[in-house]
Design goal:
The chain is α/β, with parallel strands linked by helices and about 375 residues long. It has 2 domains: about 20-325, no CATH class; about 330-378. The protein is built from 2 helices and 20 strands. The chain has helices at about 1-15, 350-375, and strands spanning about 25-30, 40, 45, 50-55, 60-65, 70, 75, 110, 115, 210-215, 220, 225-230, 255-260, 265, 270, 295-300, 305, 320, 330-335, 335-340. The strands form 5 sheets. Strands 1-3-6-11-14-17 form a 6-stranded parallel beta sheet, with no helix packed on it. The chain has a 6-stranded parallel beta sheet with strand order 2-5-10-13-16-18, with no helix packed on it. A 4-stranded parallel beta sheet has the order 4-7-12-15, with no helix packed on it. The longest helix is centred in the last third of the chain and has 29 residues, at about 350-375. The protein is elongated and about 60 Å long.
Length: about 375
Amino acid sequence: MQLVISILFLFSMNSYAFDLGDGSLGACTEATITAGGRSFNCASLTLAGGGTTFSTGGTSVVIKVLGSVTISSSFVLTGAVGQVGTNSTAADRAGGQGGPGASAGGSYVGATTSPGDGEGNGGGGSATNSAAGGSQDGSGGAGGSNGSVGSAGNDGTGGGQVAPVSVPGVVSNSLGSSLAGGSGGGTGGTGTDGAFNNNSPGSGGGGGGVIKIVAGGVITISGGGSITSNGGAGGAGNTTSAPGGSGAGGGGAGGTIVLQSLSGISIFGTIALNGGAGGAAAGTTGAGGAGGLGRLELYTPGIANIDVASATLNGITPSLFDLNQNEFNGDFTTSCGTIDDGSGSGSGGPFLFSFLAGIILAFFSLKIVKGTKSKVQI
């Protein structure tokens, strides 16, 4: 009987396309979840001390947990700010680095006086350089996009602003989809003033990073807990006189948070996925555009197992996914043929479990009947 119960439990777990890891790190805390780490396999996760601020750059943060998750402090995956413009158009201005798994802000190449677009599918457009001669403000770079579209930068007196590109496609209701963090903001345009003729622009802010937590037990973010993945602010423009300032960089978009649990998700704390602020204008015009909001995706077996009623979401509308509609992607082949629930949606997990449970129960029913007949014959 213990073997039968174990088989049923395993099939109920494995009917969902979940990888909970091997728990090799044991009971994880802040000491385990290091700033430079990106992949963790925990038996449980309790964040109750100072939290973890992840370093920028690198791949997405993925935490796999066999048991429960309790976050009472903070995870931070915010993108870096763009660089401020200078008094030399020859000076390169590097874009702010994105958080883990996110895209960098647009950079400025001094040798060619070329402002760059923000990186990523939703990178903010770069701005227009000011016209040669006279006193002209450069335009501001556009904000990056993710869950919402970034804002256009302010038009300088030297030319029109390139609008931000559209939002990248939202991750579909499919486990194992690739994750995208916030896209970077665009670089501002150069400024031309009567005294120097040489103001380089502010660069774009980096996008907020990606964190994915997958757990067999309940994921709880307590009232004092938080996950923050904001975009970095755009760099400010530079001027020696106004008008004539260089344009500012656009802010990076907010990042992406994905929580997947086989038991339920409760958020009482704070989720911050704000876009970075556009850089300040140095001259009369040319401020950068703000980055768009990020994305929050929550996956459990049944939407009723998700509680965000008391959460502080800072303008984010979470995307809720029912794992009962998205397990066991494919048919189950036996020696007697192929089992399919006929829906065509790939949601055969509950059907498979019920089928196997029915076979096992039928087997034991036959055993009981056979035992009863034997007793009657005796």
